[in-house]
Amino acid sequence: MGPTAETCAELLQPLRALLGLKQVALQKRLEAENVPYAASGLLTELVHRGECRASDLAHHRVVDASVVSRQVGQLESAGLISRRPDPADKRVSLLRATTDGERAVSALEARKAEWIGEALRDWDDAEVHELARLLDSAMRDIRRHTIQDGDCDPVNREGNR
Amino acid sequence: MGPTAETCAELLQPLRALLGLKQVALQKRLEAENVPYAASGLLTELVHRGECRASDLAHHRVVDASVVSRQVGQLESAGLISRRPDPADKRVSLLRATTDGERAVSALEARKAEWIGEALRDWDDAEVHELARLLDSAMRDIRRHTIQDGDCDPVNREGNR
DNA sequence: AATAAGTTGCGTGCTACAACCAAACGGCGA
DNA sequence: TCGCCGTTTGGTTGTAGCACGCAACTTATT
């Protein structure tokens, strides 16, 4: 038997606060140079994921393929990623971060880690580690539970309002 | 003296995944009836916060006052919140969720908790509780460190913990 | 044929910034 | 003390830009 509904409800408030972090990140200019915020996120994803196709990124970020297509265009114009035709399928291009792109992501993550480190300077290292472990685990479970049976549900997607 | 940079970096990936939850929430229609997603978040904030002014909400959500103004308009049109002139200052109107608004938030949070509960059905209740505790604590510290938070809650009802 | 990857046109939602109004505040001089 | 005027603050509206979804299309795969 899983956790009680009350315990799950305890998660809601910090989760809500967490989603609000996007605003803080925007305010702190936590994005790569020359590319908008969303594209920076895509670039980070690509660096951690390694060479892959655009549709993989779209699926993973739960956005439409057109969104990824445009952001890929921005990143390519900025010289942060490169495309390579897939030898096995001429429709797809394989995306990979350039050296500049990897450098930008490293710098960005360093700034983020520093920011968090300052905010949590009173924490025990083991506690932060434990939080990271639990959070990572929870996100994997939530993603797995949500993406698979929520994804093939075309009735569900009538415009974003 | 605080967590190491490496440990903080461990947080980055789950945090990134967490921000992506917004997309999942949009697809699952995790919003109140008749109001867009962002306004639903504002309504939830208002319910937990109790009666307050628009500028308080703007500050805590780290958005411009104009954004709150428009979302308040949406929520008022939907009958989910009500305004009351502040007797002490004729410029401000005090905002409060209506009974309908509170009902909508309750229903929304129940759906969210159910969703999370299903995703974490293999978890131990104590572990979820521990995650909630750590996450809540971390968010408070990050917020406090990032925003100068003169957290003056004049009418703090309902200690959401 | 039917399906899939990617692109482009178009409409909408969310947001910030600037300009604006009205109320409140703060002297400062008579 | 009173009254006036400049400044500050809460809130609204206009404008612009980014992010996103959907539809339609092209090209390649099956």
Automatic annotation (TrEMBL), chains A, B:
Q: Quick check: keyword Transcription regulation in the entry?
A: yes
SMART domains associated with the record: HTH_MARR
- Do you know which PANTHER family this protein is assigned to? CONSERVED PROTEIN (PTHR39515), HTH-TYPE TRANSCRIPTIONAL REGULATOR RV0880 (PTHR39515:SF2)
Q: Could you tell me which Pfam families the record lists for this protein?
A: MarR
Q: What is this protein called?
A: HTH marR-type domain-containing protein
Q: Which Gene3D superfamilies match?
A: Winged helix-like DNA-binding domain superfamily/Winged helix DNA-binding domain
Q: Which InterPro entries match?
A: ArsR-like_HTH, HTH-type_Bedaq_tolerance, HTH_MarR-typ, Tscrpt_reg_MarR-type_CS, WH-like_DNA-bd_sf, WH_DNA-bd_sf
